Write the structure tokens for this entry.
Amino acid sequence: MRLTFNLRHLEKKNLHLQGELATSDLDLGEIDELIQVGDKLGYDLEVERLSQSVLVRGQLRFNLECQCVRCLKAFPMPMVLNDWMCDLPMEGEERVRVDNDCVDLTPFLREDILLAFPQHPLCRTECRGLPNAPHASSQPASGANQSGEVSSAWAVLNKLKL
């Protein structure tokens, strides 16, 4: 089921849309291999008719099941878009599509949910990664070895016997 509203209902007063939508309707299945979207999208929206557009604003709530990019551990990540807003033009080249006086909000929800996905999901900000994996902080910086001497790539090549 898609999230739609009827424009005729906006003629007298603003609309209040509240409920849940199955995330399968948003087609978010295999977007990212490290992120899976929960079953439901909760919404609490106010729809207001302006002179040449419709303004939709409110809150979106959904859960993500993520995999940490450092340690590969699965963890839940609740997401809340508190001040979600969408301006739907009713005139001009970019006007929203209207079918039987109804406007479908689903593509706009999908786009903003995708933009809210974390780029690099971490189970904790201090996550150190996989156990027994070398950490970047344990590696000497800028080619310095344990004794503090700076080694050169040429020194390694000079040791080759050709």
Summary: The mean pLDDT is 84. The two ends are 70 Å apart (CA to CA). The CA atoms of residues 3 and 105 lie 6 Å apart. The chain has two helices and seven strands.
